[in-house]
Every structure is written in C-alpha cells, then in structure tokens.
Write a structure and sequence with these properties.
The complex is a heterodimer. Chain A is an alpha/beta fold. Chain A is built from 19 helices and 14 strands. Chain A has three domains: about 5-25 and about 315-415, Nitrogenase molybdenum iron protein domain (Rossmann fold); about 40-175, 3-Layer(aba) Sandwich (Rossmann fold); about 180-305, 3-Layer(aba) Sandwich (Rossmann fold). In chain A, helix 4 (about 100-115) packs parallel to helix 6 (about 135-145), helix 13 runs parallel beside helix 18 (about 420-435) and helix 14 (about 330-340) runs parallel beside helix 15 (about 355-365). Chain B is of the alpha/beta class. Chain B has three domains: about 15-150, Nitrogenase molybdenum iron protein domain (Rossmann fold), CATH 3.40.50; about 160-280, 3-Layer(aba) Sandwich (Rossmann fold); about 285-435, 3-Layer(aba) Sandwich (Rossmann fold). Helices cover about 45% and strands about 15% of the residues of chain B. In chain B, strand 2, helix 2 (about 35-50) and strand 3 (about 60) form a beta-alpha-beta unit. The longest helix of chain B has about 30 residues, at about 410-445. The chains are: A alpha/beta, B alpha/beta.
Chain lengths: ~450, ~450
C-alpha cells in the first residue's frame, strides 16, 4: 500500500525521544481520502445539542440531509433540535441569491415554533454568492424579539476545527446577548459550567450527577442537553470545566479573556481521568466539604463498579489496539484507559490534534507506536495490519474498514448509544471491548487464514 | 403548488452521492468529489452505515484560496493522489455545488491531465452533480450517462446481450438479476454492478478497492447490445443513458419502472420475450404463480389499509403501483423530483397528499391529524415511526438501523413476495398482539 509522499511527515513512529515534530493542523491533502468533515460539520455538531434552538441550514439540501439527527445527544426537554431545517436552495436561488428565501423561511418558522433561539448556518454556496446572513439574522431578531444567531460555517473555510471556532463564536454571541453577561459578578457559589460534553448517550448526565452529589451547582452545560437560558447564565459560574478541548477550548479561552472566567481541563473517559478530574475540580475550590465529598464519591463508585468491571477484563490483557478519533483529548483518555486494562496501544491518530496534543500523546505511548494526524483508509489499513492490531477504536467510517481487515472495533463517535463517561461508562467500555474481542468470529477467521496457507 | 421556503428532515440526499453509487458499479473505480472535504466524508458515512462496508471516495478538499482562485490545482493534485493510492481503472469526478458555483472547468482540467501525463491511461469521467439541481437518483443517472459517453466505442457488430442499468436497488437485487439472465440464457451486461463492491466478502487479503463491479469492457461494447433496459421512468429523459446509446449507436432503449410486483415484473419479462424471441422460462412462471398464490393469501389483511411512501422518485413510483395491486390505499407520498408532480399524475388513483420537496417534517405535521397504518421507505422514517407509533417497513436508501440492507431482495416476483410478506406480517403481529384486549374492552361489560 502506497503512502503519499506529502503525507509522510504526518505519520511518526514514537521513539525514545518524546519530541515528535509531526505535521498537523493543516488542510487535508487533496485526494488523500481524509476521514475529516468540513467547517459546516464542525459547527453543526457542536451547536446541534442545544435542544431548544431551531437549527436552520442555509444551503442546498445535502448539508441538512447528512446532519439530520447526526448525534446521539439526549435532551431533558425540548426536541426541536432534532429537526433538520434547510432553505433547500435550488439553481434559481444560487443565481439570484438566497436572501429572500432565507428571510421567508425565518418569517415562517419563528412565529410557528417560537424557538428560544435560532442558529442560521451558512454553507459553501452561501459563502460564495455572499448572502448577507448577518443582516438577515439581525432583522429577524429585531422583528421577532428572539435570538437569531448567524453561524459562519461555509464548508471550504478550513477544516472541522474552523467549524468549532464558528460554533464557539455563535455561542459567545448568544451569551453576550444575555443579561448575566453584563453582570458577571453575581456569581453562584460553588458553581461550574460543563463545556465540551455533548450528552451522547447520557454521558453528560453521568458527569452532572457526580458534580451534584459532590455539592456543586451546575449552571450551564455547553452544549450537551443545552438550553438557551442556561447557556446565557454561563457568566454566573465560578469555573468552566473543559472536556473536549478541541471543540470548546476556543470558547473557554475567550470566556477567560472577556469575563475573567477560569477554566480547568477535565476528562471523564476512563477511571484514571475520571478520578483525576474530580479531584482537580475539588482542589480548585479548596473547600473541605467538597474535597471530602469527592473522595467519598470516588470510593462509592469504585466499590460499586470495579467488581463489575473486573468480570469483563478477562482476555483483554496483552491485546493490541489502535485508536483513531476526532479530538485529541479522547485519544489521551483512551490511551490511559487501555493501559489500565493491560492492553497495548500501537496506533494513535486524531483528526484535529495540535502539536502539544501530539507531544502529550507521544509521552503517553510506548516506543514503536505509530502516531498519525488526519490519516486515511490506506494508511489505517497499512499500519493496523503492520502493527498486528486486534481492535480499533474509532467512528463509523473506520468500523467497516476494521471489520474488513479482520479486526475488532469499538465505537467512540457521535452515534454511540452506550455512555462511556465516568465509572458506568468505564464498565460499558470494558464490556464493549470484551464483546468485541471475545466473540468466536476472530478464532474462526484465524482458522480460515490457516486453511488458506495450507 | 405553492413554492416552499424550507424543507425539514429531507428523505433524500444530494447528487454526488448518486455518483458514488454509480462509481461502485464498475471494476476498480473510485469517485472523487470535487468540493469541500465534508461532502465526500458525509456521503461515505451514509453509505457505510447502510451497507456495512468501507466506502472510499476521495475529495479535492477545496479550501478558501481555491474557492476564490479556482480549484484546478487541488483537483489535479487530488486526481494524481487518488491514482497513486488506489491504482484505479477509472476515476469518476463528480462536481458539487461549490465547484459549480466557483465555475471550475473540470472537462478541460481532466483533458489536460489525460493528454499531458504519460503515466495516465485510465478514463477520467467528469459529471456535473451540483446539489441545487437535484437528488442522488439524478446524480446516479447522470453519472452512468457520463461514463458511457466517455467510454463507449462504436459498435463492431450486434451481440447477443442486453445492457441493464439497474438504478438504485440492492446488491442482492443485482445478484438476482444475473440469475434471471441465466434462466433466460442471455447475458445481462449490468452497467452498474455493485453486487459485490457494496456487499463485500471477507477475504484474507484486504483490497482497498473491493473486487467486483462491471468490467470496463462492458462499457466499451455497450453499443453492440441487442437493447438497453433501464429501471427509471421518473428521471428526466436527458439523464437517460439508454436514450444516449439509442441516439448515438442505435441500440433500442427501454425505460421501465423497477421490476417489482406483478405488473412491472410482467412488463420486464414480456420485454425480454420480445427482445430475445424466447419464451418466458418455466421456473419464472412458477414463481409468478407463487406470487399470485401469496397475494390471495394476504389479500384480506392488506385490503383498505393506508400507507405512506417516501424516498427517491422511482422507488416511490414503484411502491405506489405495488400498493395499487395489493389494494392498499396510498395516503401520502414524500419524495423529491425535478419533474415535481409526475408521480401523483401517473398513478391511476389520486394520492391525497403529495409532498414533493422531500420534507418528512411536513409529513409528520400531516400525520398529527390523519391516521395511517404503515410507513414504507428508508430509515429516515424511523423517528416518525417511533413517535407516531406507526410500523415502518424498511426499503430504499438508507437503512442504517437494521442489518442486511444489501441483502434485501426487492425485485422480480420473488422480491415482491418478500415485501408483501413483510407488510402483511406487520398487520398480523398487530392483530395477534391486540385482539384479546380490544375485544374484551368492547364486549365484556
């Protein structure tokens, strides 16, 4: 299998030296068959979990078709976010401009559904023909007295990370239109916001429950199970907890600059990171009751879950795994989780990691591990086979590649339907690995291979 | 009908997805989507979830600079890189709304590469598939036509085979088409054979481009066929590959609906009879009899039931005809078509609600005040089915919440029997699970 010359610096083998100097944060190479999506996708997946908002995509139909209900984000209230609205631009709209159609769509939708907020996404075409969505949103906002936020997400303006930034800008805009933004000193005691958890398969609710049990007030969740009003209360919290730093790091930094609101990086994937995160949050507040409650919660969770997790650890030790995920924070947590299970990580890649991320990933890996940025099916196939990997963790596109290679697969992407956060998540994760690797299919395939070589 | 300003929860996809579908129909062919990185990725994801297969399609990954100055450089780079990595026999270059709006001249670019590069001796197919001009079905037909335009040679002599252009059916259907050809003892050249490329086999040696697909030689000699049969009556004639072969090479062209249920399968069989001057094989007539027998068995459970059908135009059209035969009332149809209201007009019985912008949300609003017994279409109906508690029988694309989408047989008398059984069993299950309680509530006082 041929690796393209231009891709060679994006794939590195970990040596004893931790300096990786990998080529990353670049546009995808044309024709490489990158697994990445576009700016629009980045913005869409970040904003979509805001449940009481109407999400209107200004463009031809495809962008709305492919992202309808794309994530398994759960809602405790409104379901309006699950409908995928599109202005469905046709040739005529491309030639004469889509502004009229967008205006009409807003005039029709806002009075009918009375959403708490509207996000209007621009797409490739809109970026080219130059519809002034800022002005149209402003007009609609005034006319209907609701929040109508433009999202500058033309697909070609960079990669998914640019889309994350566009989404963060839109969220910041929403926050800045709220009353608390003007009175950020009215802090709620022992309060936090959760940034960068999207409540896939109830993961956010697991984390929120932990924080409540410890004694924190969770002001806003951005964006999982997000509600417009809560998100506007972001300035009232004392600390932002930042999970998916790739998508929400930009917002956390912006809030720190503008509102002096500090943030703490956390991750609730895997026991090690869950425990560390809980302790770090507690130490930040330096409140004895909180620290005691945190230790109590960790004890309780360990007692409850570790015996159950142990049941599924059988057969996992020594297995060889590959990781290819979107965000780097997830990769880091997964490496630690696999190490705790006695498994060997031989391939790690991310779609949007930066230089610091890769250096950290490298420091977590054993020598010999292949580390790749924005990889493609050719490279995945080559390295998964060369590294004799037994199981790949990734998203839907990687699943079937892994299966064709005769390798087990664990889903860690948007569509997952089992929660992977906190201790319950660790149990689910271990169970998932167990059923991926212990199935008789792998020994059947091994026998098939033997037959072929006879 | 009033022009709409908004479509919500569309039941169809944009044109380039159809190009990928078509590309998988030919040996060692890969499709390159000329647009933003996201387009290719989304389409791959959708097809992968439906087929449970790796679906590779490349992207020219256009960025801001290309959007302003043109995507020529990226497209050239993309073609070369795809060629290096996949070593294909053919590359389909499908445009997107972005590349069309910035006005890239793909024909000229492809020409340049073909002429100036010695190492390049494979056909580069350029097809125009901007999403503002239509859905994925249109993209499929345009692509097959573009491929034939580029690759079909002048006919040498007439040969005893028939070109079949299947449209968007299932890999199992295509495998079954070959069986039908064997029964008739005539070669079907299936121009777009994704029976294996999109429903793969596990093998020890992994191949980046899966085995299977129609040989490129089928394309070259398509001009020598006895006839071309294509399964589409809804897409505009200017997209028709069959009509192209007829106009260009004099190969008689026939456009039929999907050969499903009694009427349309009969049409297909009678056409084969006329073209080949052979009698319908006995075993096919036996299956036909079995279908009739099964129709008698389930006539009562089906009669008068109300169904909603949604999906791409040809699928909806065929499904409506099936329902007419079964005595099931079609209460509403949802689809997208550039020839908007055609389906509604062609049917014998008028469909009360025609939603021609593909909006499943409009259907949902209508269902709030109207009761139906059945949803027939792809998994885009699943949330509706759960919410409204209406059973969904899954056919069409995409079926991402079930296994085996590639293994459903939907065509010929056999496929019609399975659809009828699936629908009848939905009602059977409902009766069996509720009749005791319902009768108790009604009569036990």
């Amino acid at each position: 299998m041929n690796i393209l010359m231009e891709r060679e610096h994006s794939i590195k083998k970990k040596t004893d030296n931790c300096e990786l100097s990998i080529n990353c944060e670049k546009e995808s190479l044309a024709g490489s068959v990158s697994q990445r999506a576009c700016v629009f996708c980045g913005a869409r997946v970040v904003l979509n979990p805001i449940t009481d908002a109407l999400h209107l995509i200004h463009g031809p139909i495809g962008c709305a078709s492919y992202t309808w209900d794309i994530r398994g984000s759960l809602s405790s209230g409104s379901e309006i976010y699950r409908t995928s609205y599109s202005t469905d631009m046709k040739e005529k709209d491309v030639i004469f401009g889509g502004e009229t159609k967008l205006k009409k769509a807003l005039n029709e939708l806002i009075p009918k559904f009375k959403p708490a907020a509207v996000f209007v996404f621009s797409t490739c075409i809109v970026g080219i023909i130059g519809d002034d969505i800022e002005a149209i949103c402003k007009q609609a906002e005034e006319k209907f007295n609701t929040y109508v936020i433009p999202v500058q997400s033309a697909g070609f303006g960079g990669n998914k990370s640019a889309g994350y930034r566009a989404a963060c800008d839109a969220i910041f805009k929403l926050i800045s239109k709220g009353v608390p933004f003007k009175e950020p000193d009215q802090k709620i005691p022992l309060s936090v916001n959760i940034l960068g958890d999207f409540n896939l398969a109830a993961e956010l609710w697991i984390v929120k429950d932990y924080l409540k049990r410890i004694g924190f007030n969770v002001v806003a969740t951005v964006t999982g199970d997000g509600k417009t009003k809560d998100i506007q209360n972001v300035p009232l919290a004392e600390l932002n907890l930042l999970q998916c730093s790739g998508s929400m790091g930009y917002l956390a930094k912006k809030l720190q600059q503008e509102l002096n609101l500090p943030f703490l990086k956390i991750s609730f994937f895997g026991q090690e990171d869950t425990i560390n995160s809980l302790r770090n949050i507690a130490y930040f507040f330096k409140d004895e009751r909180i620290i005691n409650n945190t230790e109590k919660l960790i004890r309780e969770e360990k007692e409850k879950y570790i015996p159950m997790i142990e049941q599924y650890k059988n057969g996992l030790e020594g297995k060889r795994v590959g990781i290819y995920v979107g965000g780097a924070f997830k990769a880091k947590s997964l490496i630690k989780a696999f190490k705790n299970l006695g498994m060997k990580v031989l391939f790690v890649g991310t779609q949007t990691g930066n230089k610091d991320d890769y250096d950290e990933i490298s420091s977590l890996c054993d020598p010999g591990t292949i580390i790749a940025d924005d990889t493609n099916p050719v490279e995945l196939a080559k390295y998964l086979l060369e590294q004799e990997v037994d199981l790949l963790v990734g998203g839907v596109k990687e699943r079937f590649l892994a299966h064709k290679l005769g390798i087990g697969f664990c889903d860690h992407n948007h569509e997952r339907k089992i929660p992977l956060s906190g201790f319950p998540g660790d149990l689910e994760f271990t169970r998932e690995l167990h059923s991926s690797l212990q199935s008789p299919i792998w020994s059947i395939l091994k026998n098939e291979r033997k037959k072929l070589y006879c | 009908m009033k022009e709409k300003n908004c479509t919500a929860n569309p039941c169809y996809f944009c044109m380039p997805l159809g190009a990928i579908f078509a590309g998988f129909g030919f040996e060692k062919t890969i499709t390159l989507i000329h647009g933003s990185q996201g387009c290719a990725t989304y389409m791959r994801r959708h097809m992968a979830r439906h087929f449970h297969e790796p679906v590779d399609a490349a992207s020219s990954s256009l960025n801001e600079k290309d959007a302003i100055y043109g995507g020529e450089e990226n497209l050239k780079k993309a073609i070369k890189n795809v060629y290096k990595q996949y070593n294909p026999q053919m590359i389909v270059i499908a445009s997107t709304c972005l590349s069309e709006t910035i006005g890239d001249n793909v024909d000229a670019i492809a020409d340049q590469i073909e002429k100036k590069t010695d190492e390049f001796d494979i056909p580069l197919i350029n097809v125009s598939t901007p999403s503002f001009q239509g859905g994925y079905s249109a993209g499929y037909w345009r692509t097959i036509k573009a491929i034939l335009k580029k690759t079909c040679d002048k006919s040498v002599k007439n040969k005893f085979f028939i070109n079949i252009i299947p449209g968007i059916i299932t890999p199992q259907d295509i495998r079954y088409l070959k069986v039908i050809g064997d029964l008739w003892q005539i070669d079907f050249h299936i121009l777009g054979d994704y029976s294996q490329t999109l429903d793969g086999v596990w093998s020890e040696s992994f191949k980046l481009l899966p085995d299977g697909g129609a040989p490129i030689s089928f394309l070259k000699e398509a001009s020598s066929a006895l006839a071309t049969i294509e399964f589409s009556t809804i897409n505009p004639e200017e997209y028709s590959p069959g009509l192209f072969l007829q106009q260009e090479f004099g190969v008689p062209s026939y456009r039929l609906p999907y050969p499903q249920q009694l009427g349309s399968t009969d049409k297909f069989m009678n056409l084969l009879k006329a073209i080949t001057q052979k009698n319908i094989p006995k075993s096919i007539l036996t299956t036909r009899g079995r279908l009739l027998d099964a129709m008698i068995d389930s006539h009562k459970i089906l009669f008068g039931k109300k169904a909603v059908i949604f999906g791409e135009g040809d699928f909806v059209y065929s499904a409506c005809q099936i329902m007419e035969e079964l005595g099931v009332e079609v209460a509403a149809i949802v689809y997208e078509s550039t020839r908007a209201r055609d389906i509604g007009f062609t049917l014998k019985t008028k469909v009360p609600l025609v939603i021609d912008n593909g909006s499943m949300f409009e259907l949902e609003e209508w269902l709030a005040g109207n009761s139906v017994d059945l949803l027939l279409g792809s998994s885009v109906g699943y949330s509706l089915s759960l919410k409204m508690n209406i059973p969904l029988v899954r056919r069409g694309f995409p079926i991402h919440d079930r296994f085996g989408a590639g293994r459903i047989l939907t065509i010929m008398y056999e496929g019609s029997i399975s659809l009828m059984d699936d629908i009848s069993n939905v009602f059977m299950e409902k009766i069996n699970s509720s009749f005791r309680n319902e009768l108790k509530e009604s009569y036990l006082h």
